[in-house]
Amino acid sequence: MDRIIEDRIGLCALNRIFGFEPRVGAALVEAFGGAAEVFRHPQEEIVEALIGFGRVKYASQIAWSAFESAAIELEGLQAAGCCFVGIGESGYPSLLKECEDPPLGLYFRGTSPPEQVFGGIPHIAVIGTRDLTSYGREWCRMIVEALSKSAVKPLIVSGLAIGVDITAHTAALDSGLPTVAVMATGIDRIYPPRNKQAGERIATTEGCALVTDYPPGTVAARINFLRRNRIIAGICRATILVESRIKGGGMMTARLASSYDRDVFALPGRLDDPASQGCNLLIRQNIAEPVGDLEELMAKLGAGRPGTALKTDFKAEVEEAYKGSVDEADFAALLKVALTVKANRGISIDEICLKMDIPYSRARELTTILECDGFISIDLLQHCSAKVRLRGD
Questions:
Q1: Is the entire prediction scored with pTM above 0.85?
Q2: In the chain, N or C: fewer CB atoms in 10 Å?
Q3: For residue 300, what pLDDT is reported?
Q4: Is residue 184 within 8 Å of residue 225, measured between CB atoms?
Q5: Sign of CA dihedral 185, 175, 244, 234
Q6: Mean pLDDT of 74-81
Q7: CA-CA distance, 136 to 140, in Å (whole number)?
Q8: Edge-to-edge strands of the sheet including 347-348?
């Protein structure tokens, strides 16, 4: 058997054993001169090597039968259109290898080879809370869309969870950017089930992939997501936290990225909004730089100028759109509604009726016009928010 294939099998077997402590597995590989060689040494030598790590309990799992099981597993993966990329192989993410605790290998599913997906272009993580607000959703999409228009188009990395993750993945796909989903389950399981269609779209789109360090058959568990986060942080040169509470997976990923000496950015939010408290905290602690002007963000990311920047004069935009094209009464009413929404993010249509002293039907008519023209967004609960538009929109 080819030495490269043997070592890949050995790394796959060791990854099953030392998934949560990859440094121990890596030390054994170094001590015995190769991943496959670890399984050829007698138990007493394995025990002796593990004593220094206080991990003798793993010795019984390091048997030739584990190596054979891994070989069978890799054959099955190949038949299913997946593969395992061992640390040190050309398809293994170079930045991840630089971290203190890189996994011994990654399970990979995609139409493009790992070398193509992880080679060349910069990787940027876009992450955050599952409880995404309309503000966060809007900004998540704008950030990804701006990256898609930049001179250097990156790979968008996230975790396939609901909220920020799936918004980032979908925005990337829709904008023509490649995206990688790092999963907290086996490569044969997409979690949560509601994101299966998006996961399949990622797996079948050129330049994109599903990735995990968990063996096939692994189901979702809380602890798995913590281990998953280090891969997201480790793969990427920069991490953008869109929204997060004080405690959450996004906060952990951002702090890990900072510990890896990577750039971290966070979207500022209202001081009284729980969904933004984590971002605001990282900015106060100087762990993250605030996301503001998109051109400035692109420059800091080294992505070049996307040719887009925020339009700051919302009132002037509305005036330009409607003055002279509608009668004076409608113009005044549209402008007043637009400015009311701008000043009161999340205001309901009922509340607009009270503030402007107009009937519901009139408020609904005016907000619908503004929504259709891209000035505001209305969610399922009829709450309105002003949309920050980009030059060129």
A1: no
A2: N
A3: 84
A4: yes
A5: positive
A6: 92
A7: 6
A8: 347-348, 383-386, 376-378
